[in-house]
Amino acid sequence: MTNTKTNEDVLLFLDGQFDEICDYPKCEETRTHLLTCPACPATENMCEAHAQLAKQAQPGERVVFDNTCKHSVEMVACGKIRIKN
After folding, report:
1. Is residue 73 within 8 Å of residue 39, measured between CB atoms?
2. CA–CA separation, 4 vs 57, rounded Å?
3. Among 6, 45, 52, 72, whose CB has the most other CB atoms within 10 angstroms?
């Protein structure tokens, strides 16, 4: 017996992996980086401008992975992976 909800969740997740727009609210720029969650394997898209802000984050600044795992973590603990020039 298959779990329809689980299959639907997987398909929605996979569909989101091909979205090439920054995941920050109200940002329509093309992604250049992935922001990785330090608490799980989740990643979210970031444009160049948001990636630069993330790299300059100070201890205590938090980010919420709104589109994936919903974790609220310190930005300095997140990975910032360039995927496109």
Report:
1. yes
2. 40
3. 45
Q: In three state form, how does the secondary structure of the chain look?
A: CCCHHHHHHHHHHHHHHCCCECCCCCCCCECCEEEECCCCCCEEEECHHHHHHHHCCCCCCEEECCCCCCCEEEHHHCEEEECCC
Q: List, for residues 17-71, the tens digit of each pLDDT value.
A: 566 899 999 999 999 999 999 999 999 999 999 999 999 999 999 999 999 999 9
> If you search the block for the tokens 């401008």, which residue do you land on?
49
pTM of the entire predicted model: 0.76
Contacts of residue 80, Cβ cutoff 8 Å, sequence gap at least 6: 33, 34, 35, 36, 46, 51, 54, 55
